[in-house]
Amino acid sequence: MGASNTPLYDLIEISGLTVNTTYTTAPGGGGDIIRFVDNATYTDGEHDNTQSFIGELNETPDADSGTLRIDGVTYNIQLADPDNTNVTFTYNWGASTRNLTGSSGTTDVAFIMATPQGGGATRYFIAVDDGVGNMPNITSIQIRSIDFDPAGDDLQITLSQNNNITVCFTAGTLIETAAGPRAVETVAAGDLVLTLDHGFRPVRWVGYHVYPLDNRMRAKRNAPVRVNRGALGPGIPARDLLLSPQHRVMLASPIARRIFDSREVLVPVKKLVGLPGVIRERQMDRVTYCHLLFDAHEILWAEGAPAESLLPDKEALRGLSASAGEDIAALGRGPMLPARPILENRREIEELLRRHRKNVKPLVDPALVTRRSVMAGKPMLRVAVS
Question: Reduced to 3 states, what is the DSSP secondary structure of residue 348?
């Protein structure tokens, strides 16, 4: 069947591809780590690949004819591997290192040289197998020997997951609590927070992390998304809302019901960038991200908009520190079911947004969303205010 515009997440773009070179996030060294690219798609005729899973990359001249597409440009690709030597990644702001190896077959690391069809400058990328897990806040990558002619012109590498920063609110975000709207960083374990489905529920764990946004790669990967007041619907959010790129907001509309058989769905906020009033916030030199964990995955009220709490699945936990993961494990909580259907597929999200634009409908219809709590067995409406 092959891949057809299958998303490729977390491609690390570098300034070139040469042996015995260290690429860094600080421009001007041996080579530059330019950015993370999350909007690439891959197409080929490899029968083991699908529209949602890549288990093998193929060069363009190969019989399976692999190509990349980024920002509307289609690229022919050539592949390379580390030739059985280490590629050393330094991450966690320089506190951790990891050596990855590969060969002309199954590999932890693939190098991709991409040349635009019709001519243009070649771009260079590094792809890391999903099984390696997340390496947050990469600061350098040291490349040694390179095999520019892998056997069969293909490489076996699994590329399906998006390991971006995990689900977080930015400090200063007002969360609706039993004591009224409170800045998320002041909410503590045990505090009662208003949820859409279960009224007031106690927070079980809170976490915080400060991310500097001091160069191009970090600004691209970690910068929050700003949802301007009223961008999702009338008065939703009530104030500008800043979330980490992977944080999911709840959309509610009859259009969602017609497409997905559910009027309420969760969508990563970065997938909404480009809509009126939804932008990447690039004017900050650092950001503090805050996590709220409950006994179940909940929909909370953040600046008057419905947004999820932390869902501690495998992907989200990769974006947390080791100590945070240990704290969550110590709570003894089992796997959680998502509070609403989660949309990740680019085409499905684009179709949902297209229909909303065509019909001039808000992404969150206030008439369909009841802001509810339970007090003395009776529903109570509350609205977060600035």
Answer: helix
Give the separation between CA 109 and CA 24, rounded to whole angstroms: 17
Q: Which residues pair with 207 in a beta bridge?
A: 291
Q: In the chain, which residues have pLDDT < 70?
A: 1, 92, 133-134, 161-167, 212, 214-221, 313-325, 370-386
Distance between CA atoms of 108 and 129, rounded to whole angstroms?
A: 5
What count of residues does the chain have?
386
- Distant-in-sequence, close-in-space partners of 59: CB < 8 Å, separation ≥ 6: 66, 77, 78, 79, 153, 154
CA torsion, ordered 361, 363, 369, 372, to nearest 10 deg: -150
- The answer to whether 8 touches 68, Cβ cutoff 8 Å, is yes
- Nearest partner of 226 among 153, 170, 147, 183, judged by Cα: 170
**CA R_g for the chain:** 22
Q: What pLDDT does 319 receive? A: 60
Q: Which residues pair with 292 in a beta bridge?
A: 206
Burial per residue of 317-333, b for 16 or more beta-carbon CB atoms within 10 angstroms, e otherwise: bbbbeeebbebbeeeee
Closest CA to 131 of 158, 112, 106, 107: 158
pTM: 0.61
Q: Which two tokens stand for residue 335?
A: 């796997």
- Cβ atoms of 364 and 306 within 8 Å: the answer is yes
Residue in the block written with tokens 């920002």: 71
Residue type present at position 15? S
Which DSSP category does 248 fall into? E
Task: Note the pLDDT tens digit of each residue in 181-200.
Answer: 999 999 999 999 999 999 99
**Nearest alpha carbon to residue 168 among 269, 98, 254, 69:** 269
Count CB-CB contacts under 10 A for residue 315.
Answer: 18
197-248 pLDDT, tens per residue? 999 999 999 988 777 676 655 565 678 999 999 999 999 999 999 999 889 9
Helix intervals (H) in the chain: 216-222, 254-260, 314-318, 322-330, 346-359
* Ramachandran bin of 244, using left for φ above 0, alpha for ψ from -120 to 50, beta for the remaining angles: beta
